[in-house]
Amino acid sequence: GLTHYKSTQVQSSSPLELVVMLYDGALASMHAARAAIERRDIAARRDALAKVLAIVNELQSTLNMAEGGDVAASLDDLYAYVNARLLQAASQNAVAPL
Q1: What 3-state class would DSSP assign to 31?
Q2: Is the dihedral of CA 13, 19, 22, 27 positive or negative?
Q3: I want to staple 97 with a disulfide (CB 3.0 to 4.6 A). Which of 9, 52, 57, 88 is the partner?
Q4: HSE on the CB side for 2, CA within 13 Å?
């Protein structure tokens, strides 16, 4: 089924394609979090933000700081900023940080 298809897709993807898939998943979960906040669905907001935070954490943890130079440093800063904004959205139950 769909789970098998997604698993096969991930296994056969290049590193760049995997990053794009993670970005797509993060954006979809941010949109879900925004919708949940707007309809005051705390559980759905929590779940969606948890997914985004996990994705951002994964992206940040896989940066190659030793060889990535300025690009890796800039991405690290970006991921830290996004993480802070996601936590702000959660703590304030607000869509603006998203």
Answers
A1: helix
A2: negative
A3: 88
A4: 0
Whole-model pTM: value is 0.83
Query: How many other C-beta atoms are found inside a 10 Å radius of the C-beta of residue 77?
Result: 10
pLDDT of 5 over the 60 cut: no
3-state secondary structure of 13: coil
Q: Residue 33 in contact with residue 55, Cβ under 8 Å?
A: no
73-85 residue pLDDT tens = 999 999 999 999 9
- Angle between helix axes 15-38 and 65-92 (nearest 10 degrees) is 10
**What's the rounded mean pLDDT across residues 45-50?**
97
Cα gap 53→3, rounded to integer Å: 22
- Helices and strands counted in the chain (H then E): 4, 0
